[in-house]
From TrEMBL, chain A:
Belongs to the small GTPase superfamily. Rab family. It comes from Spinacia oleracea. The gene is LOC110805514. Keywords: GTP-binding, Lipoprotein, Membrane, Methylation, Nucleotide-binding, Prenylation, Protein transport, Transport. This is Ras-related protein Rab7. It is found in: Endomembrane system. InterPro entries: P-loop_NTPase, Small_GTP-bd, Small_GTPase. GO terms for biological process: protein transport.
TrEMBL record, chain B:
Acts as a GTPase activating protein for RAB7A. Does not act on RAB4, RAB5 or RAB6. Its main location: cytoplasm. Residues 360-570 form the Rab-GAP TBC domain. It is found in: Cytoplasm. The keyword Transport does not apply. This is TBC1 domain family member 15.
Length: 206, 660
């Protein structure tokens, strides 16, 4: 990335249709929940300012269409992502089983430079439904899958109740920040470097 | 008349080439010789008469203009110089093709209606030749002067009278027919002249709107003078060559306006890559203040004030002035009845579609009219035939519906695809237009009907199945048709056309996005270049617009209006793509000026939702569509939705889809 301090963190939310991607995003950014969100067509994003260690970042959260048929759009929407959030509905086994597909599809389409270490976060949403009685995916099972994929951080949330959403996104933002840091090390600090010629020749980060 | 030569052309490559060519052609046979009639005498010849095919003043095709006399007839020719090395930016298309496109082969002056002379105080004089058909050639710029001499020569051979209305218009052939003469004085907007099917009767019938247009048009005409506004004789089969020339001519005018506009808006910004020096030349600026004070510009001022984004108004005001056929009130029941014969056949479906295109229909009529527009009913069917068809379809629907209704819970357990499909539909119908009264509230039965129709459709068209966005298409259909089975058949008919939007391989969407990129390239190449530079040529930011035909961008009533307008396929099957272009063009200066990247652009486009003024955008789209003409249609690959599929190869490609 260019020779300036990174201030934009791009996060992609993926998961089956109706697991609550739009609701999670809106709950986190706007602290609101609505029953009337329409199915997302194409993609959209919201932004939120976050602060870490006295530095201000813009978290750009991308909400995408959940139906598999629209995955081919990912190429355009996923590029430059710093973190990917995989969401499933704890009341739907299918949506959990699909996490693997979503993860793989993301890695193919976004083709991050270091796929093995690209940060994912998994969210099991809708824990409020039916007082938890209609739940079909045990937490243990979800955590086991996360562990098997390189210890992906895991959260259980209710976008409707606003439960655990803030915590999940704190983690998402931190991971997004971390993912860019290695690259950043190789970037000259534009504030300290006075010689413009040096800046020009820094295409060497791989 | 003084022929001004304010600009030194000695450093101009085109000019040098033409000079060279010109001197050679005195001794050698000139490039136009072959096409001259035998025994012809050249009575007038002028070199370095040029046209500007695009908005780049630097892009210019120069050639030689001649008047040739043969017997009692006078012919006009303009042949571009061969091998001219223009600074063309349209590298895809060969110069020779382009030059051929513009070439004026011997044209009898009897085919010419009028010649308009333009003598701007700064810049070069040019003329516009308008044919009797209403079509016109691109403006011919006289870089070496000679307009007066040209007109004088014509006058020596054919009847040439100065128009009583405008001293700069010279009428070549006066009409014999008093009716035509009357019509000619109306100066119908260019739209009418291109809609060549119109009969005299329909022109007279729509005279109210003609008159309405007239005030705009005539005042505009007297300021800048556009041949495209001249009326035409009704000639239904004009050669496509002429049409394409007219199209390009219109482009040249539009882009000229764009140039002036842009140079005003960005006048100070010399670093702007889209501003060549020529753009800043105030060559026609004297006409601008008048234009801005046109009454018709109110159209744009009427855009709701909540629009926080400044539009790109001037360019479009002018575009609207050139072609904007005023929108009409929706068609009423009384009008509708006049389209039907005693047995209920639509007598002239073209007329009907045209009428609906310009104003839509009143809501109460939609239930009756939409099935025709969607192809559910043949325009030639009688009341009795339709009644019979209804009863058959009602039964057919029930049979298809029974297919999934008869699946027991035990069977469903073993039928994953069915459960998944049903689950997807259940998730979507409860979030489809729930804020709209017809679908709001808990346990609204209409939501269940949406569900049943979608699930039935996914059995009727098992290969396509269900895809998100379909519920958006169905919602207004059910609201209008009320009956479940009728809504179903309308939906099925609509999906015959837009179904490919939902192909798993997204081929239908990609075809449309591709066509859109070509249309933008054609109608606004700086914007195209900007998108290219920003790596935005996939046009994914327009994905939602196209997938569900602006359903999410407008209010419910407006969506219904837009859809019935689009379904007429009146100026084009693909008007929705021109609607996209119109919106993008409206905000082009903002997009380019703020250097929007893909993300910003997507966000900006998504947030235009609810801020698009339907009537003015449709007007713009119509103008762009007419303007692009066949060149525009050529940008759209055959079979691009909503065209009907070209062949049944579609079936196999859908079968490869993973069926959901």
């Amino acid at each position: 990335m260019p020779s300036r301090r990174r201030t934009l963190l791009k996060v992609i939310i993926l998961g089956d249709s109706g697991v609550g991607k739009t609701s999670l995003m809106n709950q986190y950014v706007n602290k609101k929940f609505s029953n009337q969100y329409k199915a997302t067509i194409g993609a959209d994003f919201l932004t939120k300012e976050v602060q870490f260690d006295d530095r201000l970042f813009t978290l750009q959260i991308w909400d995408t269409a959940g139906q598999e048929r629209f995955q081919s759009l990912g190429v355009a929407f996923y590029r430059g992502a710093d973190c990917c959030v995989l969401v499933y509905d704890v009341n739907s086994m299918k949506s959990f089983d699909n996490l693997n597909n979503w993860r793989e599809e993301f890695l193919i389409q976004a083709s991050p430079s270091d796929p093995d270490n690209f940060p994912f976060v998994v969210i099991g949403n809708k824990i409020d439904v039916d007082g938890g009685n209609s739940r079909v995916v045990p937490e243990k099972k979800a955590r086991a899958w996360c562990a098997s994929k390189g210890n992906i951080p895991y959260f259980e949330t209710s976008a409707k109740e606003g439960l655990n959403v803030e915590e999940a996104f704190q983690c998402i933002a931190k991971n997004a920040l971390k993912s860019g840091e290695e690259e950043e090390i190789y970037l000259p600090d534009t504030i300290d470097v006075g010689n413009g010629n040096q800046q020009r020749s820094t295409g060497c980060e791989c | 008349m003084i022929e001004t030569e304010l600009h030194d052309l000695s450093d101009d490559a085109d000019y040098a080439a033409s000079q060279q060519q010109g001197s050679q052609s005195i001794t050698r046979s000139d490039s136009g010789r072959r096409s001259e009639p035998e025994g012809a005498e050249v009575v007038y010849m002028k070199d370095n008469v040029s046209i500007h095919p695009t908005q780049y003043m630097s892009e210019r095709i120069s050639g030689r203009l001649k008047l040739i006399k043969q017997g009692d007839s006078l012919f006009l020719t303009w042949i571009p110089y061969k091998g001219q090395n223009t600074n063309t930016r349209l590298s895809e298309r060969g110069d020779s093709d382009r030059n051929n496109l513009y070439t004026i082969r011997p044209l009898p002056l009897t085919d010419v209606r009028s010649i308009r002379r333009h003598t701007p105080p700064l810049g070069w004089q040019y003329i516009i030749v308008v044919l009797a058909s209403g079509l016109a050639f691109p403006p011919l710029y006289f870089y070496n002067g000679g307009v007066k001499e040209f007109l004088t020569t014509i006058k020596q051979h054919v009847s040439l009278v100065r128009s009583a209305d405008d001293a700069n218009v010279f009428i070549v052939n006066d009409f014999q027919d008093p009716l035509q003469k009357t019509l000619s004085s109306l100066e119908l907007p260019g739209v009418v002249s291109v809609a060549a099917q119109s009969t005299n009767a329909s022109l007279v019938a729509s005279s109210s709107q003609v008159n309405q247009g007239r005030s705009d048009v005539s005042s505009y005409d007297s300021n800048t003078g556009s041949q495209s506004l001249r009326r035409q004789k009704n000639k239904s089969n004009d050669p496509t060559k002429d049409l394409s020339i007219q199209v390009l001519e219109k482009f040249s005018l539009v882009t000229k306006f764009a140039r002036e506009t842009t140079s005003q808006l960005f006048g100070e910004n010399s670093g702007d890559p889209f501003l060549s020096n020529e753009w800043k030349r105030p060559s026609h600026s004297q006409s601008l203040p008048d234009l801005q004070s046109q009454p018709s510009t109110n159209d744009l001022e009427e855009v709701p004030c909540e629009v926080p984004v400044p539009a790109d108004p001037m360019e479009f005001e002018k575009l609207a002035l050139v072609w904007g056929k005023p929108r009409q009130p929706p068609m009423t029941k009384e009008e509708w009845i006049t389209f039907l014969d005693s047995e209920g056949r639509v007598v002239d479906s073209n007329d009907l579609r045209k009428r609906i295109f310009y104003g839509g229909v009143v809501h109460e009529l939609r239930k009756e009219v939409w099935p025709f527009l969607l192809g559910c009913y043949d325009y030639n069917s009688t009341y009795a035939e339709r009644e019979y068809l209804r009863s058959v379809r009602k039964q057919d629907y029930e049979i298809i519906k029974l297919q999934w209704q008869s699946i027991s819970p035990e069977q469903a357990k073993r039928f994953t695809k069915f459960r998944e499909r049903k689950g997807l539909i259940e998730k979507d119908v409860v979030r489809t237009d729930r804020a709209f009264s017809f679908y709001d509230g808990d346990d609204n039965p209409n939501v269940n009907v949406l569900h049943d129709i979608l699930l039935t459709y996914s059995f009727y068209n098992f290969d396509l199945g269900y895809c998100q966005g379909m519920s958006d298409f169905l919602s207004p259909l059910l609201f209008v048709m009320e009956d479940e089975f009728e809504a179903f058949w309308c939906f099925a008919a609509l999906l015959e056309r837009v179904g490919p939007n939902f192909n798993r391989d997204q081929s239908g969407m990609h075809a449309q996005l591709f066509a859109l990129s070509k249309l933008v390239e054609l109608s606004d190449s700086p914007l195209h270049n900007y998108f290219k530079q920003q790596d935005c040529l996939n046009y994914f930011f327009c994905f939602r617009w196209i997938l569900i035909q602006f359903k999410r961008e407008m209010r419910y009533e407006e969506t219904m209006r837009l859809w019935e307008v689009l379904w007429t396929h009146y100026p084009s099957e693909h008007l929705h793509l021109y609607v996209c272009v119109a919106i993008l063009k409206r905000y082009r200066n903002k997009i380019i000026g703020e250097q929007m990247d893909f993300d910003t652009l997507l966000k900006f486009i998504n947030e235009l939702s609810g801020q698009i003024d339907l009537d003015s955008i449709v007007r713009d789209a119509e103008a762009l569509c007419i303007c692009a003409g066949e060149t525009g249609e050529a940008c759209i690959p055959p079979g691009t939705p909503p065209s009907l599929p070209i062949e049944n190869g579609l079936v196999s490609s859908q079968l490869e889809d993973e069926v959901l």
